[in-house]
Amino acid sequence: ASRSAVVARAGASEPRRAESRRESLAKGAALAAFAAMVQTTNVGAALADRLPEETDVKLLCDSACEAALVDAETVTTPSGLKYKDIKVGDGVQPEPGFQVVVDYIAKNEQGFIFDNSLEKGKPNDVRVTGDPTSANVIPGLDEGILTMKSGGIRRLYIPGDLAFPKGLASAPGRPRISPFSPVVFDVKLIYIPGME
Fold first, then answer.
1. Is 2 within the bounds of a domain?
2. Beta bridge mates, 87
3. Structural domains in the chain (count)
4. Cα–Cα distance between 24 and 27 in angstroms, integer?
5. Closest by alpha carbon to 188, among 149, 159, 139?
6. Domain boundaries, position 160
7. Region (Disordered) spans which residues (predicted)?
8. Better-scored residue on pLDDT, 101 or 196
9. Which of 115, 146, 156, 174 could form a disulfide with 185 if both were Cys (CB 3.0 to 4.6 A apart)?
10. Radius of gyration of the chain (CA)
């Protein structure tokens, strides 16, 4: 009796397996058709190379500012940090060890935003140190802020060795930053508590 039960069960499962194979073939054909469409329309490249469009993003540098930056002087420091002043501040310059209050927008090399303090609704307090080994933020940001004056806005082009040595996993919908990848920060030095 047990042998016939096994045969009966095997016979009963046979149609399911055939149906499963048919479904697999159909799914495979559908995927192949989709892949062919993606290749011919170049949708795949667009999907792979881009994140969803950002709408109503708060920025420190609008389109007029971006146009002005094209002709702005680029300063390169001995460490390899590069920057362009969007607006030179008229306040005081921070000293190492002081806390500063900044707004910033951080982008990857392709210009996709991975962090934006303006969207969070409050600026960040950062202690600048002038020492890459003890900086509370990435060394390139620390160095770039130290030569600003309050009220200033600057674009920092931070090389990979002054950025995120371990990389950075970002929020959903935001790009991931690979280890030692260059990044770009727009920074506004709002004020320096204790110095102003």
1. no
2. 153
3. 1
4. 5
5. 149
6. 80-191
7. 1-22
8. 101
9. 156
10. 27
